[in-house]
Predict the structure.
Amino acid sequence: MVSPLSLLYYTVHPQELRSIIQWKVWHNPVHERNEREEPESLKRCFFFLDMTSRSFSAVIKELHPELLVPVCLFYLILRGLDTIEDDMTIPLEKKEPILRDFDNIIEKDGWTFNDNGPNEKDRQLLVEFNVVVEHFKKIKPAYQVIIKDITKRMGNGMADYCNNAEFNVNGVDTVADYELYCHYVAGLVGEGCTRLFVEAGLANPALLKRPELMESMGQFLQQVNIIRDIKEDLDDKRRFWPKEIWSKHVTNFEDLFKPENKQLALDCSSEMILTALTRADDCLYYLAGLKEQSVFNFCAIPQSMAVATLDVCFQNHDIFKKNVKITKGAACQLMVESTQNLRLVCDVFKKYVRSIHQKNNPHDPNFLKISIACGKVEQFIESIFPSQEKPKDLKSPATAEAAEKVKLEKQESRWDMIYMGLAVAITLLIITGSMLFVAWMAGARFDIAFTQAKSELGALFGSVQGGIEDVSDASGHSEL
Amino acid sequence: MSSTEAPAPSLGKVLITGGCGFLGSHIVSLVVKRHPQTQIHVLDLRTSNNRHSSPTVSYHDGDITDAAALSAILLKIKPDSVIHTASPHFNLGKELHYQVNVEGTKNMVKAAQDAGVKAFIYTSSASVIYDPDVELNNADETWPMVAGDRQPEYYTSTKVWAETAVLSANRTPATFLTCAIRPAGIIGEGDVQILPKMVTALRKKQTKFQVGDNNNLFDFTYVENIAHGHLLALQALIHTHKILPTIPLDSERVDGEAFFITNGQPTYFWDFARYVWHEAGDTLPLSSVWHLSADFAHVIGAVLEWVFWVMGKTPNLTRQQVKYSTMKKYYSIDKAKRRLGYSPLVDLDEGVRRGVRFILEREAEEQQKKGQ
């Protein structure tokens, strides 16, 4: 399992290894699935969840019991839809009606689909789709309504794209088309999940009044995937980077991958990253509306991964050559930090946004725009978690006259201090003087006292012997 | 951004002081463009520069430190509203700052009150809350102003006192409404402080160094956006005047209030500088830039200051510059967004492009003159 290369990597990056160990040892799921009470067919659903999803199955399985099964089924239904849409071996006239009717199909007892091509990796899910239908009909009607609605809209959106010859040949044209595509495949998922969370009472209903926030949640994840997968998609003959963006940098889409166009390709990728990055602050805003820990984790983990992925892709020409990924250690670190509270997730965003900003190239056509997008995320974080307290009002003088007065007062009080000191010194001087005078009048021998004091001082600092002699001498003299 | 589309109704008679200056002339242009029916009177010390060709603009030479003359001008013009932008250059002496900013502003307020002006907008400065010991992270209008001994820049103190004088005159008499706009880092065509200094640094080949970690966000604002903020404030005061004696809700109030106006696009300090340099023709790759830590640069600055002090000069790197380029200084403009409906008209990158192009054109003209 452990390759020598990764062994070497973690020897040099012990921090990442530490994160992996921390996550594996210390992470306790917020909620755990109760497998013993699940019927066989539901277990099969979770089996499909593990099979079809790499990143989502873990977070879904830790969801609050109220939402565990609905979200799992929601995922499987959309995965089924996606498997039909993706499969190029299914003729369009057969594919389109299924996509458009999928919201009804999920209510048809015993519905299965065997016509996927043999290479479609998730075909088994559709072959046994009856288990999904069986359990979909058992969840709360309110959840069914939401899932059905999203399925209907997504199925129709996908069917529109399948019908669009232009899209199939040339890929996505404008930025608006690109965002519309991301809306169908991800923005709608954001909406569906949000409605499920609110229905279950696990998120703030105000989230439904700010639809752009849930849209951004989906858009951000999808756009980051599209950026990262540029090479993989090219190999699969698919293009999701909109022509409106790449045509500013190169004439033909394929030119992006030519080594001589490295700088142009990087400029193009930063424009794509900029488009995604402008959604980042919305995502943090959305996360602030979640009330329940497992739901928070479910949403926050993918977002943190996305912002970290954006960072590794930024100014990285490798994305045009291979699939660029964050390391396992970094991923574990992100999971640790994304399963606690919003403040830590904000720290994650700040860290990666700053890393992006530090790599920003001053000669990139979108240099300042990227800098501003990073600044916007930082300012948003500052607005919800201020890094400093408002300074205390030290009551600055409100007018020039008042300032002058303050100055004068300060000066005055300084002179007052000086006068006071002088007065005390003079008083002391007079008293001492008069006391000495009275003593002298009364016959005090200051000359003796003076020599004695001198010799005592000498005794203190000089030799002890001499000191004693001096004293006896002085006292003998006084006896005469 | 809709407000730029159709010509908006007349603002009546508007007096703009400093209307031949950098910001003032842009305000004049925006009023002409957006409210073509408005009669504009410009009052400035000298009205020979930046004159607008529109017949709706008339120019008056005058000195706002001369209270009697000022009163006479306002009584003659009888403006409905005043936009008071006049302020001396930052580099001029203390005495002048006090004379113009404090005394001049008080004279303006008095003259406006006497002339029956309805709305009075004062151009303050975002630096009025600047405190050398505090960073400005997303600062808003509830932060205390800093003047007097704690304020290192006397200029800023005079802006604080002028703003206080204007805002405390609000609703005295009850028909006299005032507010203050606090712009941050104004740039654009005709800017004499920020962009020209940065372009000069490029010409002196000083772009190879940068001080600090460059994670400090800074606000700069394109001049037309500031002008836009002034006009929105003016429209709000005119509206409030119409509904007198009703006083708006505290959360909606504009009169007697101060507003930060920025581009709402805080940028990392050195990113801004590098963008300016790039626009002015710099091609230095980021990889060849030397990064100095703030502490190290501070020591060097101190040493240089001493050495140059002995020679009687000012060095290129001073401790103050180190501090300025490594501090955080950005504001929240939520209050202006909510109460004035403000949002910037021109993005910061476009604003910088316009400002730098303006400088390069001047440079080219100079070159041509020399060549002839």
Q: What stands out?
A: DSSP finds 24 helices and no strands in chain A. Chain A has a mean pLDDT of 88. Residues 400-441 of chain A form the longest helix (42 residues). Chain A has two domains: 13-384, 401-479.
